[in-house]
Write a sequence for this structure.
């Protein structure tokens, strides 16, 4: 199984809502990533988890809260988002020896 | 922060022609990879070149790496309409797990 599964595919939320994005992989990869991608821009690194511990936070606002409950699962909890947070949120896991990254299909988030 | 730049930003060619995209980066890397993204969805890995390699081939893809110039190029030969997508170089910073992308090239292959 070489898939990274992200749910939901689409999400519309109000600025006062709390929602979560989910990412799952069963390849045994120990590094997992959250990226944010705006239209016509490259993916922008948000968080890196290594061996289930948060190793990198790229100065992301606290309204985004990542969580890694186990080695296969990565969540991104969203609270009090702004319309400018609307974007495609991508999850990825990195293969051993820093080889290729496997990406999910993303969650397209719209904040209204 | 933007760690890599690509050019051109957009490229439009006829089917059968070759497409070349260039990537430049700013710091020491472990390896450099190229990804394709269709219609703003997930990215698909195309090819990886390690920092001690200079050239690599995979099917219609040829990638080069010049670590002294901190640059790489991706050549797609005999392009097809199905190659229409955005292409990104990506790299892992040496000794870190930070995985960054270049600015991307949007390729349009006209049938």
């Amino acid at each position: 199984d070489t898939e990274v599964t992200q749910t939901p595919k689409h999400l519309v939320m109000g600025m006062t809502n709390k929602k979560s994005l989910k990412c799952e992989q069963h390849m045994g990869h120990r590094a997992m990533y959250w990226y944010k991608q705006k239209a016509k821009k490259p993916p922008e690194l948000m968080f890196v988890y290594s061996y289930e511990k948060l190793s990198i936070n790229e100065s992301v606002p606290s309204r985004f809260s990542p969580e890694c409950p186990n080695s296969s699962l990565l969540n991104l909890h969203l609270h009090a988002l702004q319309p400018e947070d609307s974007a495609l949120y991508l999850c990825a896991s990195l293969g051993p020896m820093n080889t290729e990254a496997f990406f999910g299909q993303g969650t397209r988030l719209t904040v209204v | 922060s933007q760690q890599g730049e690509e050019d051109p930003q957009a490229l439009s060619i006829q089917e059968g022609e070759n497409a070349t995209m260039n990537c430049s980066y700013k710091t020491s890397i472990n390896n450099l990879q190229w990804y394709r993204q269709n219609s703003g969805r997930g990215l698909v890995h195309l090819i990886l070149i390690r920092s001690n390699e200079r050239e690599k081939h995979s099917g219609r893809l040829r990638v080069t790496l010049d670590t002294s110039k901190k640059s790489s190029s991706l050549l797609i030969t005999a392009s097809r309409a199905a190659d229409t997508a955005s292409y990104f170089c990506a790299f892992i910073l040496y000794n870190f797990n930070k995985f960054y992308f270049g600015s991307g090239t949007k390729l349009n292959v006209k049938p």
Observations:
- The first strand of chain B starts at residue 4 and ends at 7.
